[in-house]
Structure formats: C-alpha cells, structure tokens
Amino acid sequence: MVKSEFEVFKKIKKLFAPASVLSSEEGSDTNEALMLKVRDGDQAAFEKLYGKLRKPIMSYVYGFVSNLSVAEEITQEVFLKVYRVRETYAPTAKFSTWLWTITRNAVIDHLRKKHEVLVDDLNYVEQQKQGSSVEQIESELPNSEAMLVANTENISVHDCLKKLSASQRDALQLRIFSDLSYEEIAETLKTTVTSVKTLLFRAKQGMLGCIKKKELIHE
Amino acid sequence: MSNHNFFKILRTKLEQKPKSDFDKRFWKRFDEEFGEKKSLIQLVLTPVPVAATILIIGFSAIWVTRDYRGSEDVELASALMNKEEFLDNLEMLRTLDEVAVLASDEDWQLILDEGESPREDQEQS
Fold first, then answer.
1. How far is Cα A67 from Cα A57, in angstroms, rounded to an integer?
2. Which spans in chain B are helix H?
3. Mean pLDDT score of chain A, rounded to an integer?
4. What angle do helix axes A166-177 and A193-218 make, rounded to 10 degrees?
5. pTM for the complete prediction?
6. Nearest to A149 among B10, B17, B22 (CB)
7. How would you class A196 by CB atoms within 10 Å of its CB: exposed for 0-12, middle for 13-18, buried for 19 or more?
C-alpha cells in the first residue's frame, strides 16, 4: 500500500513537534484508548473526549448552520449519540473517522429537515484537476497572503466559506478542524483521495480569491 | 513558518467558542438521559421487593376473583331453592334414585307381587 504524501508531511511535522503535543497524541490517552474505556462504561474517559473535541465539532457544525444555538444543539446531540452507541464502537475503526462520520450525518439530517441543502450536494464528487498535489495544497502562503487572511475579519472569512460549494466546504472544514488524513477524509466523505485533493485545492483558491476581493472592496 | 499555513490561519478565524453555559446544559441533558438508567438498574438489582409486590398482587387478584365466583354460586343456589316445584322434583328424583340403588331384581319382583296380590284377591272374592 502506497503511503500518501500527506502522511509523510504529518511524520515530518511530528519530528519537529513539541514534546507536550506528542505525549497527548501518542500516550495512553489517545482518542481510541479513551473511546475503548467509554465503551466499557468509563464516564471519566467520556468527559475527557468531550472536553477535547466539543470545540472543533461545534466549529465544523457552525460552518454549515451559521447559527450558534443550532450549532450547540447539534454538537450536544452528537456527543449524546456517541455515548448512546458507545457499545458499537469497534477498536478496528479510528475514533476520529467514526466521530466525524456521526457529526457529518447529524449536519446532513439537520439540513435535510430544513431543506436548506440537498444531501446530494454533499456527496458531489468533483472532477480530478490535473496538478493539484498535496504539496500545492499544504504549501505555506506568501507573507502578504498570510497577513491578508490573518487580518481579515472573522465574519468576512465566514462569508467566504459560505460561498464555497457544500462539498468544498465539507472537505475544507474536515481538514481544518479534524485530525483526519486525506485518506480518512475521503473515507468520511465517501469519495476518493483524488477528489479530496481537488476539493481542498479549489476551496483554498476560492477562499483566497474571496478574501482578496473583500479586502479590495474594503480599501 | 507555521504561521503561514493557510489551514491553521483559517482555523483561528473560523473556530467557534460555545456559550458559557454550554457544558452545564450538556451535562444536564446527559444526566437526564443516562441518569435514569441508573435508577432502573438499581430497581433490577433489588428484585426481592419487586417479586414480593408481584406475588401479593397476584394472590389478591386470585382471592378476590374466587370470592366473587363463590357468592355467585350461593345466589344461584338460593334462587333454585325458592322454586317449590324444583324441590319436589328433586326430592322425587332422589327417592327414585335411592330405591333404584337399593332394590335388587328380586326385591322389585316382591314389591310388584305384593302390589298385585290384594287386587287379585279382591277380584276373586
């Protein structure tokens, strides 16, 4: 099996990561280890998982619903569901993939009820774009662009996010808020790694273009 | 250099903080859903009082039903006893039954002979 370029990036990142980060990722308190404890009825382990993951989960949900109260409600329901179905968690599955699939399904259910977006929009598979590699997607921004994005108001960045297609937004948010690899994002979105790369490349280009436009208008 | 990573910058811009009472509300919901399970388990773990209650209810139900049926039978018997004709027939049937049981064929013949003899005697005289 060929390892993805992203996995190589992750390994390089780990080499330079602070010890504290490594200990939390590789110690006995990995998400998988905690979830196995939760499966056996350990409520304290569930509290740890909840504490670690409620913020990224809520941020992802907010990206789709744009309403804090609704995002909170869905996030709470996700964690209640995790506890409800804890006994079905299989140690062979990576916890993050399992959790983000539950979260994504909760968002889709909400959107379906509200008729805000068709589920098919989220299952849309983009055509492969030639030349979109992990290096391009993960490459550092030039100083001017990095400063531009960093200085743009949060609300404007959120507006730009809403202008992306549902599937681009989905892939981008999973890349931002989860610790999933490209393969795992593809598994969660039920698509190919190539499609994930294309979605992320286009999302990045779309966000940068939108932010630049907004800043130009602002000036 | 990591400050120039597009996704990291974007995360800081898009990350949402939950309201201050978020955790309180969540754990309240958690306790409401999974706290009740504990009390159900406690009930299951103490089967003796539950079994005793079921037994008491069961026996009471049988007892009440039995009394009711008994009183019904008494009422029926009382109604039958008030029928004079019924009682006469009952007495007749009982008498016949006793005779039938006690009398052999020879006894019957003797009874019949005794019954016929005076009449023959009267005719002859």
1. 14
2. 6-14, 22-30, 36-45, 47-81, 84-102, 105-124
3. 84
4. 90
5. 0.64
6. B10
7. buried
Q: What is the pLDDT of residue A20?
A: 39
Q: Which member of B1, B11, B16 has the closest CB to residue A140?
A: B1
CB within 8 Å: A161 and B16: no
Cα–Cα distance for residue pair B77/A32, rounded to 1 Å: 78
Record: contact A75-B18, CB cut-off 8 A:
yes
Contact B6 A177 (CB under 8 A): no
Q: Give the model's pLDDT for residue B113.
A: 72
Q: CB-based contacts of A67: which residues, under 8 Å, 6+ apart?
A: none
Residues listed for chain B: 125
| SS3 (DSSP) at A127 | coil
- Cα–Cα distance measured from residue A39 to residue A82, given in angstroms and rounded to the nearest whole number: 10
Cβ of B6 within 8 Å of Cβ of A141? The answer is: yes
**Residue B108: what residue type?**
W
Chain B nearest C-alpha distance from A94 (Å):
23
Q: What is d(CA B43, CA B32) in angstroms, rounded to the nearest whole number?
A: 17
B30 touches chain A (CB under 8 A): yes
